[in-house]
Amino acid sequence: MSDLLWPGDHRAGSLLSDVSVLDALVRVETAWLEALVAAGVAPPAARGDLATLVSGDDLAEVAVGAEAGGNPVIPLVELLRARAGGPHPETAAWLHRGLTSQDVLDSALMMACRPAVLRVQEELRQQVGRLSRLAAEHRSTPMVGRTLTQHAVPTTFGLKVSTWLSGVLDAHDALTAVALPVQVGGAAGTLAAVVELAGSTADPLRTTRDLTAAFARAVGLAEAAPWHTTRTPVTRLGDAATSCTDAWGHLARDVLLLTRPEIGELGVADGGGSSTMPGKQNPTAAVLVRRASLAAPHLAATLHVAAADSVDERSDGAWHTEWATLRTLLRRTVVAAEQTSALLQHLRVHPDSMAARLEAAGGVRSEQRAMADLRGVEPTGDYLGAAAALVDTVLDRADRALGRAGR
Amino acid sequence: MSDLLWPGDHRAGSLLSDVSVLDALVRVETAWLEALVAAGVAPPAARGDLATLVSGDDLAEVAVGAEAGGNPVIPLVELLRARAGGPHPETAAWLHRGLTSQDVLDSALMMACRPAVLRVQEELRQQVGRLSRLAAEHRSTPMVGRTLTQHAVPTTFGLKVSTWLSGVLDAHDALTAVALPVQVGGAAGTLAAVVELAGSTADPLRTTRDLTAAFARAVGLAEAAPWHTTRTPVTRLGDAATSCTDAWGHLARDVLLLTRPEIGELGVADGGGSSTMPGKQNPTAAVLVRRASLAAPHLAATLHVAAADSVDERSDGAWHTEWATLRTLLRRTVVAAEQTSALLQHLRVHPDSMAARLEAAGGVRSEQRAMADLRGVEPTGDYLGAAAALVDTVLDRADRALGRAGR
Amino acid sequence: MSDLLWPGDHRAGSLLSDVSVLDALVRVETAWLEALVAAGVAPPAARGDLATLVSGDDLAEVAVGAEAGGNPVIPLVELLRARAGGPHPETAAWLHRGLTSQDVLDSALMMACRPAVLRVQEELRQQVGRLSRLAAEHRSTPMVGRTLTQHAVPTTFGLKVSTWLSGVLDAHDALTAVALPVQVGGAAGTLAAVVELAGSTADPLRTTRDLTAAFARAVGLAEAAPWHTTRTPVTRLGDAATSCTDAWGHLARDVLLLTRPEIGELGVADGGGSSTMPGKQNPTAAVLVRRASLAAPHLAATLHVAAADSVDERSDGAWHTEWATLRTLLRRTVVAAEQTSALLQHLRVHPDSMAARLEAAGGVRSEQRAMADLRGVEPTGDYLGAAAALVDTVLDRADRALGRAGR
Amino acid sequence: MSDLLWPGDHRAGSLLSDVSVLDALVRVETAWLEALVAAGVAPPAARGDLATLVSGDDLAEVAVGAEAGGNPVIPLVELLRARAGGPHPETAAWLHRGLTSQDVLDSALMMACRPAVLRVQEELRQQVGRLSRLAAEHRSTPMVGRTLTQHAVPTTFGLKVSTWLSGVLDAHDALTAVALPVQVGGAAGTLAAVVELAGSTADPLRTTRDLTAAFARAVGLAEAAPWHTTRTPVTRLGDAATSCTDAWGHLARDVLLLTRPEIGELGVADGGGSSTMPGKQNPTAAVLVRRASLAAPHLAATLHVAAADSVDERSDGAWHTEWATLRTLLRRTVVAAEQTSALLQHLRVHPDSMAARLEAAGGVRSEQRAMADLRGVEPTGDYLGAAAALVDTVLDRADRALGRAGR
After folding, report:
1. D57-76 residues touching A, CB cutoff 8 A
2. In this model, does residue B279 exceed pLDDT 90?
3. What pLDDT does residue A1 have?
């Protein structure tokens, strides 16, 4: 999968693609059917591997059929029933029983989000490692500090890297705190259909509880009360994704500045080319990462507006707004994650340029002189204050995040 | 083309699809090459129909290749040069000369937007017609007015329809005012390369002017000064699209309310089904239209944030944010346009229910009594005020918009 | 009026302040009462200058009282009636008759927006003048072009200014196209109360029409059909304001880059200071303008989300979202307008630095060589292409916008 | 404090008002000065209660003065120095030493946010209590479930309440997880000035560490590494506030629907009035809560866009965008918190109407029949499934959140 208008999209591969979502929808229906049988609610003959019944070739039919009822589960269930029907009438009769469309779609979306979240977490961990090494290496590399675009007092490149690292660690925290819950509630969130079907068992309520727990395990999602109209799992995921793009956007904007030829404190080893000037080396990865950071907040805000617009036992449009928005947000987050990692990999640090800019900067020691005057002493030293200690603090946090022994 | 997670997306067909955009990119390069030759800048042997050199099969390669330089034009031009190279060295040598990637991409995007805009305009015009008929038909159909969810004084369904119609007319105005400009500026917006190439002609500047004008005509776009970093064409298009979804969202929210079973003043003839309750008739089209209206403002805002972040002669991420955002916004607008038209087509008005609700509503005449008291007279009449005249005012505007003689 | 957390807010003075809005509310009620009397609907004794009845001292009471009914018009009308009551019973009896809260609030907001819009337009015009002079002056001042942060081919500072100017002209166009309509519809938008009251006249409908027209003239707003739930006037105003901040944000981001000490192609004569480094000269005005451009798109998007959420004859929250959002957006636009003008006034251009950077930039002539090679000639000239001519095109547009004879 | 255009704003009182922020700024400077003295860095004579030096009367001067340098700390420090100067030269000499404007402003904003956060948390806890009682009371009150606006299978009002409660608990979790950190970094985040000043002590780095820790305790904020350009504390607070308005918006939208006269399953005891129809009872609190939920996501998104735009050691506009945005977001959250509590207090449940609507709803048992058919039995019971058990699950979570023994 690729997207001509979002360069790098291929990095997200089939994550949350239509095919992946279709696959997840079928896996949800299969796992549920299996749970019904295992719980003794449906007969063993109902068992069936639904994955053999549909394929990517059915995508267009299901997608087009989704419009009439407003979601793709309705035509998919029809298709599955029709295809299972002849040879496996029990499968056709029992599949989807007890569920509502939203159960299937929400669960499948969470399933499809899971590998995307894991991929981003893995990238974040690698970035924590890379940034930690970079901060440690440049713990004492002096450079000019800049505030409101102008030269201020000196700082170190290590400290700057540690501000990027703090953001990446914050993003890692946020993403780690995200739970991906299963959705099982039935038509109005009461589980009435499951309980009714479980009427043949000794304790229908207990059977229902065990069945839904088994189903959650089977699809690899967290157990949860129905959240048909309480959309925190979606907004929290969206906010966490945005905390990632915030951190990367910050980093990218610094890189885009420091690789400018007039500054040249950083370089990119694999600068992208130009259609007209072959020798030009553009910090393309940083450009593309910054791009994502400009778009993500709006997608997350869409999820919040939808969450707040929840109504009834299933919303009248707000729910439908989420699906494609969440997919776009997560795919872009995955792409930006990899592009940030690539950017870091190809980043070159030019301490000489940093030293030269610091040397050339006028007045960066004026504050130091004022402080020394206050004490009635002469200014001495490099005026880097606690920079190295502050770097260490962030490195310690990074070590803990990576589960390493403290330094 | 379809999208499993945005039901109805197939209605937008191939509009702004990757294939369409690739095709537009190639058409831009072809038209430019032709203009170079026609202007006597490039030799006749440079002429070539580039469309035969690439196809949808090349999409993945171009898309993946787009990441290195940050946009798809760079790998596309390489591909075109490589393929033209052997048999048509002059074509290979001259294609893209004078242009920069952004010229090609911006022009191609505007070209790809054009049929989408035309489609939406056509739908808007049909809606104006349908809503005009509906408003005229129900010019005097009384119903209870509702404010802050509670019953207020009476109104007419025709007047309510006229408020929808006003929004649709506003959207039509906004979309009609949108210009889709060509982009030709060269590497830094100075047209330096074209002027340099035109050095062989008598008046290079004049040649350049004529050439770019001919190019604009060839690709069907408006002439414009380079707008590499002045992104009003994009934001204006985004705002106009959002004015469409605003109008439809308003209409859809009213329909979603009035088709509720407890109110039943409107009905939908083709209500969508349910995966668990076959007899259920959902106002699916309205649900899907409302969905679009919740998402569009955020996409338009993304375009504004990008516009304001313009810098240098080509921006460092803001430009790249626009492409996929604009595509998504326009495709959703097309889909919502058709779904709104379908919704209107299947809308059923139940004047009896309207009358019954009005009858049942308590206190809707209290204001009338207060007004009559003020005059010292007895209240008479249906208390519909100027409702019919207000409908007529909007119908007149609709007639003008459709270019019809006034009523 | 000032805002500690939005430096420069005092520039907007009392525009759209609570006092101004209260004043506008009272002026609306006064104008309406006068119109009722003038039309022969209310008796002459009803006439009254309501402005003498309330003052800024009543603000808190009205503001607190606004919560019960959800808007400030309800407590204001109560207050006016109570105060007018004794001496002027006819005034008390007739004021507000025929109107609904939304008529008064929407009309008053449009009235309060008007001087803000005019102020911004005036600033835009001054900026057009200033930018035109700057572009003309530097029509041939060469500087290095930059794309994706890296050096590209040469351009001129005049051409860069003309891209800012184009954005400012676009904003001027957008703001000029905005109409500020009056709102008169009565409780459900039917004008029923007015028509009922006008029952004493020969032709109540005609009386109503004349009365509302006279009212519109009196409050200085455009006539319009009721737009209680068709919120285009608000979204269009919001979009136009955002087109302003887009243009200024673009300009400010360029200034923030070019005034960096490592580049130094521009300077600011009145750079702001620092709390710790007295000698530091920050491009504060540009910082504050950029600030506004990051915030405005989200406020405009809020207006769109609200517009799309319209329902019934008065919305259940969407309408209420607009008021403070629109006020904040417009005040910030006024502040940014003045700060942009101040920024332009203090901008210093350093052609020597521009020349030096261009000289130092490697490879900026590589494209020129490639073009010359294609023609089989030697590259000559400054490779500025049509830069000067493109500047002239924008200057011509500016002249037309200012109503000046073409150059 | 009140806001004519955001009814209910007075509920937030002076929280985050200009006066409160000014007070917090002064308390930050005072606490810092005290910490300098206590650490033995500044002489005892430097001690001074700065709060006596400025008052609300100075607000306009500070606010206007804030524009030149871009933030209010610069003029405030000047003012404090000037006023302390004569009688307390040591105070004037030492105050603000070691800090940068951003340290003071960020710390003061976090201080000013704290009581707002605590207030919202308290309201959330009360809502948890009230909703728990409501859910328990109506654990078995049947009503018709509604999906996509149409009648679905039965549910209970208790279960609906538990979906609101889940959202409120999620919001409480989010807000509880928010840390409000102190900001101390000095001009470029290195703490260089403090370390320089602490040069007179035995171990300047340790002194600095102790001093900043003491300062954090004094202002009641969490210790933290400098976060000048890593803005997670701000975005996380914004996201948490939005999770609150999401939860309340959901609740309000349900209330706005169910109090419609045609449905009447809920009522509001203190319905707001109308300026024209005195007897009208509007669910005003719900309207105003919904209003906040439409606006908040955009404000939170603004904070994310700003966070991602961080650059250098202090950003060039992004930082400045946050202050007023965060204030507005938090004040609106406080107001919506109280309005939601008020709404819940005045909510009236009409089980008879719920029963009547359920009775009248056609086909709500069709799914039950289908399930029973599948099992080959007759449908029995109320088809409420696990509704009561699901309510209990949420009530248990609520008990834990309130620190109560489980039920």
Report:
1. 70
2. no
3. 75
